[in-house]
Amino acid sequence: MTIGFSIALIVFVSISSVFLMNADDLIMKNTNDNIEHLKNIDENDHAEIYSGQTEGDMVLTPLQKELLYKGPKHRTGLVNLTRKWTNNEIPYKIAKGNFSWLQEQFIILATKKLMEVSCIKFVPYDEDYHKNYISIVGQFAGCFSQVGMIGGRQILNLAPSEIGVACFKFYSIVHELIHALGFAHMHCASERDEYIEVIEENILANQSHNFQKYSNNVITQFGIDYDYGSVMHYPAKAFSKNNQSTLIPLKSLNGVEMGQRQRLSDSDIARINAKYC
Ligand SMILES: [Zn+2]
Asked: Secretion signal: which residues (predicted)?
């Protein structure tokens, strides 16, 4: 092999690795504090908050991070940050040996919940037909997902636990699947300052970045109003260091619970349908 060819090959491989980052390489190592917290998590608390990724549970590509918080360099309307799945079809593969039969059924039930309320279709991954798919694994602490269709294999992790607990709360699984559909968190929406106040002094050390606001024109709400009752909203005490609120609603909650994980709200359903159906 000539030296020129070798150099060209090295350059090609390094450039490729920048653009084709393996999904696993994007996962940040969770902190020991989070891992400890997850072991005895309270039933009103959500495991996805303590999962060590962006805003707790979003695994973002470097480009997504840049766009989400800094905005597009050239403002040409909405950036295609949260890519739609082709033909509303989301192939998924539950990793063998990662979950019990019951846990596997519970994950499938969560995909069915989203299919029931929209036109999207979760289908078992078939390597002969599908290029892009979600690999559902239970290999890491916490629960997290990549956001939107990334291309190729992408990760959604649910740490195995008892049904109804931690990452196996039914609507925490639905929450992660909604990230995979291309939706981010409600409490970071660009219009959030009209609806919530972020109380900095109650936030855990080094966790303020989880309350950054998304820049305009990057995330669309599809014309649907901010919703305290969204399954994508974080609870009042998310990332709290003193059990005091980090998020205070500025308007009436009208009977809904901020940060609930008991149902899909009407606006959650409306957003999914606006994006896909
Ligand atoms: Zn989330």
From this structure: 1-23
* Residues acting as catalytic residues: 176
Question: If you search the block for the tokens 């500025």, which residue do you land on?
Answer: 250
Q: Can you give the C-alpha Rg of the chain in angstroms?
A: 19
Note whether 61 and 26 are within 8 A (CB): yes
Instruction: Tell which wins on pLDDT, 55 or 41.
Output: 55
Q: Is 179 labelled as part of a ligand binding site?
A: yes
What's the 82 CA to ligand 1 centre distance in angstroms?
14
CA of 194 to the centre of ligand 1 (A): 21
Q: Which residues surround ligand 1, an ion (CB under 5 A)?
A: 48, 57
Mention every residue, 6+ apart, whose C-beta is less than 8 A from residue 44. Answer: 235
Per-residue pLDDT reduced to its tens digit, 64-88 = 888 887 776 654 444 556 789 999 9
Q: What is the pLDDT of residues 108-149, one digit of tens each?
A: 999 999 999 999 999 999 999 999 999 999 999 999 999 999
Q: How far, in Å, CA of 185 to CA of 202, rounded?
A: 20
User: In terms of residues, how long is the chain?
Assistant: 277
Residue 2 Cα to ligand 1 midpoint, Å, equals: 50
Structure tokens belonging to residue 123: 């289908």
How large is the average pLDDT for residues 272-277?
A: 94
- Find the angle CA(132)-CA(272)-CA(234) to the nearest 5 degrees: 100
Answer for the pair 211, 188: CB distance below 8 angstroms, yes or no: yes
Q: What is the pLDDT of residues 153-169, one digit of tens each?
A: 999 999 999 999 999 99
DSSP assignment letter at 208? G
Quote the pTM value: 0.90
The structure tokens listed for 84 are 């739609």
Report which of 221, 231, 225, 273 is spatially closest to residue 256, judged by C-alpha positions.
231
Mean pLDDT is lowest, of 127-136, 213-222, 263-272, for 213-222
Report the separation in Å between the CA atom of 179 and the middle of ligand 1, taken as the mean of its atom positions. 7
